[in-house]
Amino acid sequence: MGHLSTSERVCSKTPVIPGDASPPPLLARRSKLQANGDAQQVRRGEDSSPELPPRPKFAPPRQDSQSSRGVIPKDIVDHVPKDKINLQEYTRTFVGDRVFGIQFKAPLKWDKVIQISLLHLAALVCLFTYPLRELNIYTTIWSFFVGGVAGFGVTAGAHRFWTHRSYKANPVLRSILMVCYCVAGQNTLYDWVRDHRVHHKYSETDADPHNANRGFFFAHVGWLMMLKHPDVLRRGRQIDMTDILADPVIRFHQKYFIPLKTFFCFILPTVIPVYCWGETWALAFIQQCLFRYVSSLNFTWSVNSAAHMWGSRPYDKRIMPSENIYVSVLAMGEGWHNYHHVFPWDYKAAELGNYTVNFTTMVLDAFHKLGWAWNMKQPSKELVRRTLEKYGDGTHASQEGKDGKDPAQVAATQMVGHFHYAEVPDPELEYDAESSSTESAKLDENENEGERMKKSKSKCA
């Protein structure tokens, strides 16, 4: 979870990736198509190929020969991130940088290394030099409030609603969620949702954007400082994002992402303390654009790192995501991560029946009573019981003392695999981003079958 910048988006207005331009013989045919008012791209090297049908403005990228050619349809060039990169060339040149004798597994994104490092360094310097005598209680309360708004936008909006579709919301609530998400100052909703759906489908593999098997730092923030593994891009193209691009709220967010993020994350939170209770510009900026922003980012990142490495696994001992109460407090209920990775479509993101460490669920229940949110999904108690009895590590409250063993000691001896196991599928199957029956799973089977056929043929030869 969590993104800092828009570097992963393709912002060029040119519909062809550099180094993959169309050859001159097609210029005549391209001009003819444009003269007829048809904006379709022409497949390179196939002058007689039939024209492709027209597409809606925000349709998802085609999985056809154009994708492998690196050609980006002009109508979605500003909305689809890196989906049309020449993956073969990307993989061929994917060589880790070596810095001060340290060999990295991926090329570094130096602009992000510098930006993230300077942001945290500035926050630390201001923390140690902050004039405590001038600390204003109203500004402090305001910082916590804005941080809570940002956290709600990430947890209830980007995560539970748009990524997992764990409940339904009316246009008013969707707009509120979008604005709250803008306060968090992370990446576009499209990028956030795509990366998180890939994370769930291929958790702890090379296709996981923040694979925890590569260490705490990489899972926490290092993944934002490096180019994505080729498997992340390859699997990301197989994720169904049609529901995201079909949402007018998402389209508005995509179109005005930069001004929305700048205004709601930095300008408005800084201006209000100055004009409402006389805070100085410098201290308002430090509290909002440094302290609150950096804290919010790290709270979100902790779900990718700490909640995948430390804690109990009462629902599935075979996976790395864990129940971590500290992350739950910081991330407003997102730290019950072992449960979440088993039942990702539960709107509570936890089995908990109270709001003690799940503030997001409390607010969502309030919107549910207003009628703005409905179809709040959650598994039956019987399904949860069967799952934890079959795969759990014995630390669940219902299993304590059953076999006379200390649950903590049992959990400490459990072996956690480095493979992704199938999650309990959404019973409504509204989208198949995580179901084991998705098209990408079928592609996996086809690839494995192809490998087996090649081996059998080589043995026969």
From TrEMBL:
Q: What is the lineage of its organism?
A: Eukaryota, Metazoa, Ecdysozoa, Arthropoda, Hexapoda
Q: Where is this region: Disordered?
A: 1-73, 427-461
Q: Which Pfam families match?
A: FA_desaturase
Record GO biological process:
unsaturated fatty acid biosynthetic process
Q: What gene name does this entry carry?
A: LOC108085870
- Organism (species): Drosophila kikkawai
Q: Which GO terms describe its cellular component?
A: endoplasmic reticulum membrane
Ordered alphabetically, the record's keywords are: Fatty acid biosynthesis, Fatty acid metabolism, Iron, Lipid biosynthesis, Lipid metabolism, Membrane, Oxidoreductase, Transmembrane, Transmembrane helix
| Compartments reported by the entry | Membrane
Q: What is this protein called?
A: Acyl-CoA Delta-9 desaturase
One annotated GO molecular function is: iron ion binding
Ranges where the Fatty acid desaturase domain occurs = 142-344
